[in-house]
Amino acid sequence: MEQHALNPIPKNERRSWYNIALIWAGAMICVSSLMVGGAIVQGMPILKAIAAGAIGYTIIIVFMTFQGMQGSDLGVPTVVVSSSAFGREGARFIISTILAVSTIGWFGVQANVAGSAFSQIINLWLGINIPVWLSGLLWGIIMLTTAVYGFRALEFLNYIAIPSLIILSLWGLAKIFSSYGMTNIINYVPKENYSWSYAIGLSVGGFAVGGVIAADFSRYANNRKDAMLSGFVGVWPTGVFLLIVGVLLTVVSGTYDITIAVTKLGLGFIGAVILVLATWTTNTVNAYSGGLAIINLFKMKNELRPLMTFIAGAVGTVLAVMGFLNYFTSFLTLLTAGIPPIAGSMIADYWILKKGNKKLWESEITDINWAGIISWILGFLAAMFLKTGISAINGIIISMISYLVLYYPLKAYKTKTATNFKEV
């Protein structure tokens, strides 16, 4: 797939919706998807938590569909797709920044989980207590090292880790219903009291990046219909299933720390091994993607990719040692505020102003489109600080409206300034 890089995918290399849906489903099957459900149910009764999570995934699917269909139309990745809305340099900066921040943050979360799981393995196996921070440091180093030197060699682990995590989820569900019973589960009382807006925002944050960069995969779709179907079928059912598993694991264990939850269910050693494998494979990709994002952000030579991958993983490892897992909900809130407004600006540009027309999209690409950048910032602030409504929707709507209001005045100002400069 990498042979086309930033160029359009030829029609003879396009794929059916179910091929792309499998890729999306594989991306959803990870430890963080379980943790999102656990984070939500800490502040809501079970059924409300599941409903809030499902609504969050529905919001993702809506803006992901528009992003995906545009990717299918143009056949290029997100950093190119977004160049009309933000300008070439603006798109490079914004997309690379969100990818770097999100992947490094997720590296910290996953390394923290791996450290907790490894400490549990050593305790059960050898009776030795290793501090979680030390295990997190060890596994962070292993993960970033394999990302730098052994990325291809680790690919086979995905064939083990993904099915194993599905089996662990099903095994956990069976243990929950056999050991705890429906009565105890239904009578669950959350420790906190989350609003619907906050809970839905946590769900959106869990896969907001995936929704915005949908073009990276949907560029291979045959048409708009396939792009839409692949996102819905691949993301929504898988995400909601793992959300429910995460909710129930947290209810019976009292924590969204997945390692503790697995241990309390009596899945200790095997469960911990599966968690280490799952986080290892995910974090290899996180470090690799984070390194590429840094290279693109600062326009570095590709030869520096191993060094930037190492730096991305090193920063994530420091976060793990500092106990970044404790700030998981704050991290999701930040992603919910910062990422969906990007889609709002892009939707306004391509689907409203350009009417979904590829030729109009191509004709007005500049180095910097200030309408897109300003509208994204306004959407981010709205999502972060407005106290009414759902934060992700607030951000998308404000960024869309701002883009539509700012586009023509700023375009006219730029044209006038350029004309005056030429006359001088």
CATH superfamily: Hydantoin permease
Share of residues in helices: over 70%
**What is the total domain count?**
1
CATH architecture: Orthogonal Bundle
Whole-Å distance between the termini? 48 Å
Radius of gyration: 22 Å
- Main beta sheet strand tally, sense and closure: none
Beta-strand percent range: under 5%
Estimate the mean pLDDT confidence: 89
SS element count, helices = 20
Would you report the number of β strands? 0
The SS-based structural class is mainly alpha
Describe this structure in words.
This is Cytosine permease. The chain has 424 residues and is mainly α. It has a single domain, classed as Hydantoin permease. It is 79% helix and 0% strand. It has 20 helices and no strands. The protein starts with 16 loop residues before the first helix and ends with a helix.
Q: Care to give the gist of this entry?
A:
The chain has a single domain (2-325), classed as Orthogonal Bundle (Hydantoin permease). The protein has 20 helices and no strands.
